[in-house]
């Protein structure tokens, strides 16, 4: 998620400064660090660190005992807020004022900030310094970036930002196909009655999850077995191969979707997916 936040903030920076060009790949030749340093801007990852550390200092200043006890005694599980806070505190020790305290635990930091109220302003000044906003030292330890990704593979350490990337990884690395293919038999969605020209188009319609179609299909259960889905996909291999030879992708739409005739499937109640 941090990578998405970084891209969004840098996009706004480039738009405001007139350094975001079209096509978009051209902007990669302009280093983010140069834009941030030349214009005295704050690195997006530093914004997140500053917000987390400011919240931590505010909880100490307000003497929120419940929150502080939760921070003190919560295990530093990778990906948790407390783990990220501990990494931020270590990162702040690169400042001269906090350098001697690099070995303090989170609990010791709480005691230290309680008797040194100047720490909050020192952290803000540290985050505003030019060298603290250089992306070159962000994520030296791969574990520090473990929480930056929204999806994690259950079979290996691979992590990514989108469900599409995860599905592609699971298929290429582990041979796992998207189970949604078992819930659709024809090119017509039984929930909304939208008819598509190809199977890939209706699968894409269901995968999006922006409509209740995916949720309803998952509640109703599979309509095909693994072998039946494999046979159906095998029969479409020649069609997809011809599209590839023409330089076209398999989800290409030669015609828009149309509504099919017939009553839609009644909506079912079930857990939110």
Strand content: under 5%
Whole-number tally of structural domains? 3
Structural class: mainly alpha
How much helicity do the residues have?
40-55%
- Tell me the radius of gyration: 25 Å
Q: What global shape is seen?
A: elongated
Order of helices and strands: HHHHHHHEEHEHHHHE
Number of helices in the DSSP assignment: 12
Structure description:
This protein has a two-stranded antiparallel sheet with strand order 1-2. It folds into three domains: 2-38, no CATH class; 44-140, no CATH class; 179-259, no CATH class. β1 (151-152) and β2 form a beta hairpin. It is elongated and about 70 Å long. Mean pLDDT is 83; it is low at 137-144. The protein is mainly alpha-helical and 273 residues long. It is 48% helix and 3% strand. α3 runs antiparallel to α7. It has helices at residues 2-17, 32-38, 44-61, 65-73, 81-92, 106-115, 119-128, 163-174, 199-207, 213-220, 226-235, 237-245, and strands at residues 151-152, 159-160, 194-195, 258-259. The chain has twelve helices and four strands, in the order αααααααββαβααααβ.
The gist of it:
Helix content is 48%, strand content 3%. The protein is mostly helical and 273 residues long. It has a two-stranded antiparallel sheet. The chain has a two-stranded antiparallel ribbon with strand order 3-4.
List the main descriptive attributes of the protein structure presented here:
single chain, 273 residues, mainly alpha, 3 domains, two-stranded antiparallel ribbon, 48% helix, elongated
């Amino acid at each position: 998620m941090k990578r998405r936040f970084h891209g969004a903030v840098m996009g706004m920076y480039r738009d405001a400064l007139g350094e975001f060009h079209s096509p978009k790949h051209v902007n990669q030749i302009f280093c983010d660090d140069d834009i941030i340093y030349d214009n005295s801007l704050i690195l997006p990852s530093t914004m997140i660190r500053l917000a987390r550390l400011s919240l931590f200092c505010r909880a100490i200043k307000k003497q929120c005992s419940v929150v502080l006890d939760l921070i003190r005694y919560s295990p530093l599980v990778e990906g948790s807020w407390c783990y990220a806070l501990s990494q931020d505190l270590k990162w702040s020790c690169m400042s001269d004022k906090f350098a001697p305290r690099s070995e303090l635990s989170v609990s010791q930091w709480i005691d230290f900030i309680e008797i040194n109220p100047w720490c909050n302003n020192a952290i803000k000044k540290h985050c505003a310094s030019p060298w603290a906003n250089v992306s070159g030292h962000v994520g030296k330890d791969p574990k520090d970036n473990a929480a930056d990704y929204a999806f994690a593979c259950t079979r290996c350490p691979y992590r990514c930002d989108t469900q599409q990337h995860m599905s592609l990884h699971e298929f290429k690395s582990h041979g796992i196909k998207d189970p949604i293919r078992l819930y659709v038999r024809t090119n017509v969605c039984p929930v909304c009655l939208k008819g598509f020209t190809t199977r890939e188009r209706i699968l894409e319609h269901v995968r999006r999850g922006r409509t209740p179609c995916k949720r309803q299909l998952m509640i109703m259960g599979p309509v095909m077995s693994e072998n039946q889905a494999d046979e159906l996909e095998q029969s479409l291999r020649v069609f997809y191969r011809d599209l590839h030879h023409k330089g076209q992708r398999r989800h290409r739409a030669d015609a828009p979707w149309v509504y099919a005739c017939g009553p839609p499937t009644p909506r079912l109640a079930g857990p939110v997916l």
